Amino acid sequence: MTDTTDTAATPGRTKAKANGAAQRKGLKVSRVFTTEGKHPYDEVTWERRDVVMTNWRDGSINFEQRGVEFPEFWSVNATNIVTSKYFRGAVGTEQRESSLKQLLDRVVKTYRGAGEQYGYFASPKDAQIFEEELTWLLLHQYFSFNSPVWFNVGTPDPQQVSACFILSVDDTVDSILNWYREEGLIFKGGSGAGLNLSRIRASKELLSSGGNASGPVSFMRGADASAGTIKSGGATRRAAKMVILDVDHPDIEEFIDTKAREEDKVRALRDAGFDMDLGGKDIVSVQYQNANNSVRVTDEFMRAVEAGGDYALRARLDGSEIERLDAKTVFRKMAQAAWECADPGIQFDNIINDWHTNPETGRITGSNPCSEYMHIDNSSCNLASLNLMKFLKDDGSFDVELFTKAVEFVITAMEISISFADFPTEAITKNTRAHRQLGIGYANLGALLMASGFAYDSDEGRAVAAGITSLMTGVSYRRSAELAGVVGPYDAYALNADAHKRVMRKHAAACDNVKTYGVMDREILKAAVSEWQNGNNIGDKNGWRNSQASVIAPTGTIGFMMDCDTTGIEPDLALVKFKKLVGGGSMQIVNQTVPRALKTLGYQTESIEAITEYIAEHGHVVDAPGLRPEHYSVFDCAMGERSISAMGHVRMMAAAQPFVSGAISKTVNVPESATVEDFEEIYFESWKLGLKALAVYRENSKVGQPLSVSKKDTEADEPEKVIEYRPIRKRLPKKRPSQTVSFSVGGAEGYLTASSYPDNGLGEVFFKMSKQGSTLAGIMDAFSVAISIALQYGVPLEKYVEKFTNMRFEPAGMTDDPDIRIASSVVDYLFRRLALDYLPFETRSDLGILTSAERAAEVRGENPAAVESDEDDVDFAALAASAPIEKVVQKLVEQSPQVAHSSTEVLEKLQGKGADAPLCMTCGTKMRPAGSCYVCEGCGSTSGCS
């Protein structure tokens, strides 16, 4: 796709400025992924599916659309999320999209049309090939645009394509009020924004009237309240924001302490009995909770920390020195506050601006909420991410050629979008059109490394990551230089040409610092070096079309759209995950990356099966049968028995950072036992290694959200004032509904009688076998009483079903029950029958217990959940309801979720401890980390902006 040819100027396209040429070259596009005369849609098998998404906490339906059309190889999760998030039009109307074809056509045809309008293609044939190639890549999940593209492109709404925004605020009331307004508009659309508040006068400075200024922290309160009010107005996700303050601002200490002090307030209010969970009615009284906070530090400050010196706090109006502070003391306060509540993060100003291509336009002072987009104030960036696993060939090598071609298509499409896109403010429109910032990135790096047999925290793994990142950005800038020869460089290029060229040389030179260890990383790096050399030569002649090309974003929702195992630059969350099944239900599976990694490492089929079974049961590889200890590190994950160290995450970021135009969205997670000194070391080493930004989160450090559900060990000398909840018995009334079932198991006959509360809660069972007075009859009577009393005290029926099904002893064998043809014991039969009669389909499906009609529906490829029940008048939701709870003494007992609804909850069940992740505000599922944000596997909602 790299060829160009002369073509006449196209009316309506951007002005031709380079060399004053009246005519420019259009792109000559060659086929790579598609076949001439065969549309990509005709190469795959399509099927119709029903999408019904519920809130698992109360069973309410969040979204329903039946008969949607998707390729058979797309997962249920990808289908659900794309249908509910990205299909446009009112549900139930003819205008509603119902096929992935309609979604892809809406977006891709808009890009193709804009490319023709603005003169990007040499001929209509080239435009047609480009359309089909882009469709193929999206259809086969090789990449995805960021969410706003799917929301807005090709619709009557404004064609907003950017997820990331940076605003600005000056030291005037008008500017501050405008900041509130602009943030509100961006939040309303479900996106996020960040800005630096350092231009606002400190509370220690005087106003012209003679009084003291309010200071930026006070104005943060108003912005926080505004975000808290508007955040739920986004149609697709919660709003996100970032506030930054320079380390030399006179109010820096107050800024550092803001969220830590509020966290103390949360604890005090919680202990006083107020509802301080995320979404709780009393959490709104806590301030500054809607933003990520970051301190922007300089090399001067970090050197003062290193040397034990002091530094100056400077007035905002004239830059005069107000006072001097000990650098180590301020650095310790930053680490202490982050240790307590995860804020503030840290951003390294000199490193950020040393890699800035547009310093003549203005310094980089801000970032988006997730810290991957860093550029000038009042600007935006549209993102797209590649699925790296798609380029891993069967022989274990990385397909450099196909990756290069894919990057060319993606970056071209992203560039075209700026020509037709709409933006939320006039200032952002002007700066984005003048600088044309792009943010290509990737997902599935962690899965790629594991599948290739490389540990995430290893020299080999970092070499592969560095090479791929360098190749991606190198190809992107080379394509940008070629596009500059077609439609001209970005408007601000002439002003910033020397700086832009300098940064391009820095990227190229960084390749010399990458040490290779094998064939894969050597081939990737060789291609990257060639791309930088070629691209810089073209750029010296044409300039570049884009001021920046790449970022590493969280890839939350779009990661699910591409069926990625890992997001952004992250490693695997854990070795087991939660998978939704076609037709309803779910199951816990070992990541498919694991068997592939074992095969790459040379293990035979029998060993792979044994190791995989061990992982499925234990959730980790320690002592797995036949697995060599030297291979344990390949399977290290973000969480679990063998979790990657904090510096392992930092070193991976450092490997990729020199080849990223922007920054990397990632939070470094550390255990609860980490110290403040550990935080200081992580921050300091990140600066030494050349990172642009970093956030560190200590497990269980935040209170105001429903995170870990594990019990906390308390110090023996620290009495704990907590609340205990003790169950009480709910007896059945004198008259209650019941049913009796006769059965035969292996020739032994008996009766099962089950009684329920008037509101349909199961409360009593009797098992009758053998003659009265016999040992078996006595045992069954005692067993019946024990089960009945426990049910009345609120023990869920499903726990008994989990424990007693598959229990083996005689009598066993054939039964006379058409729904349960064979039982491994009488107890196995009895609890399978109770499950079929008294548990809802979703719970039974998770346990693998279905009626004969439901199993037949599965065989026919139908939805077993749609099989009509003979018990339509039964309230299944109430059947497993627990007994009422009575407060007894001051002690808190926390309960783990009984059924997993996400990979995070699967991991919790295996580990026996809670994981720090918020609950989804839409469907109640526990979310999983995605960069510095969180993403919901149930519905695709994110806590961030990308």
Automatic annotation (TrEMBL):
Pfam families registered for this protein in UniProt: Ribonuc_red_2_N, Ribonuc_red_lgC, TSCPD
Span of domain Ribonucleotide reductase large subunit C-terminal: 162-697
Keywords: Cobalamin, Cobalt, Disulfide bond, DNA synthesis, Nucleotide-binding, Oxidoreductase
Keyword Oxidoreductase annotated: yes
Reactions the enzyme catalyzes: a 2'-deoxyribonucleoside 5'-diphosphate + [thioredoxin]-disulfide + H2O = a ribonucleoside 5'-diphosphate + [thioredoxin]-dithiol
Region (Disordered): 1-23
MF GO annotations: cobalamin binding; cobalt ion binding; nucleotide binding; ribonucleoside-diphosphate reductase activity, thioredoxin disulfide as acceptor
Domain Ribonucleotide reductase class II vitamin B12-dependent N-terminal: 51-141
Protein name: Vitamin B12-dependent ribonucleotide reductase
Keyword Oxidoreductase applies: yes
Organism placement in taxonomy: Bacteria, Bacillati, Actinomycetota, Actinomycetes, Glycomycetales
NCBIfam families: NrdJ_Z, PRK06556.1
Essential cofactor(s): adenosylcob(III)alamin
EC top class, as a word: oxidoreductase
Biological-process GO terms, alphabetical: DNA biosynthetic process
Residues in TSCPD domain copies: 733-837
Domain of life of the source: Bacteria
Transmembrane segments: none
